[in-house]
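#struct-help
A.M.: can someone run this one for me? Single chain, 248 residues.
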Amino acid sequence: MIYYDLNVPQELASTAYLKRLEQLGWGAVAINYTFTGKAPKELCPYVKNPAVGLKQCTRLTFVLDDPQQNFVLGASESIRSYDILAVRPTTERTFQIACQSLEVDIISLDLSEKLPFNIKHGLVREAVGRGIVFEISYGASVSNTGSKRRAALSAVMHLVRVMGKAKGLIVSSGRVSGEGSLRAPHCARNWVEMVGVKPDSSLTLTVDNAIRIIRHAGDREWSVGGSVFKINNDARSDFHHDYMALLK
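D.P.: on it. Structure tokens below:
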């Protein structure tokens, strides 16, 4: 069985860091580049590190502050070359747009502090119905202490309650304070059970839903200026090609 961590920040993805994830038992990772504001004209996706045995793919996360930003998601060929696309909405309006209309694979919420908007069950259900998965990261709760740690745990528990089921959730490491804060897959499962996921569903967050994300990413397409664009498969990583072949 392969365990997936689909949020390894690109700036942390050193050989030593990836080897530690591999030692802990993770089999596949997504190297995540996050940016805020206007999308760069040219992006340089992460290049697979041959020094580790992990399956590696690329992920791009947009921090959405302005509803107008959604128009750039499919307009750039370099953006379409990423394996996985995610958004992190920061307002009620951008959260609504992400759930209802954006062609992305993951909605990631900054649960390290209180969100400035309410997570509405109807919008969550609509997003899950479109094949989108919501991400919860253990990094904020294991790297922080005191009130910040309690706030992070409270925010995650609230999202789990709103979701109701594990079908639309995935757990990842996200930003941690160092290699010592990384957790093994069974520890990640214990953590999601602590925040409210049923024990018989915790495996779904580290395996099944990651496969759903990969399948959803392979089928993604955009409409830009009246033209429909599919994924730029020639630029996709070996990870995507290997796993899409396995899932057929």
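A.M.: thanks! The radius of gyration is 17 Å.
D.P.: also worth noting: The beta strands are 4-9, 28-36, 55-64, 84-89, 106-108, 133-137, 169-172, 221-224, 227-230.
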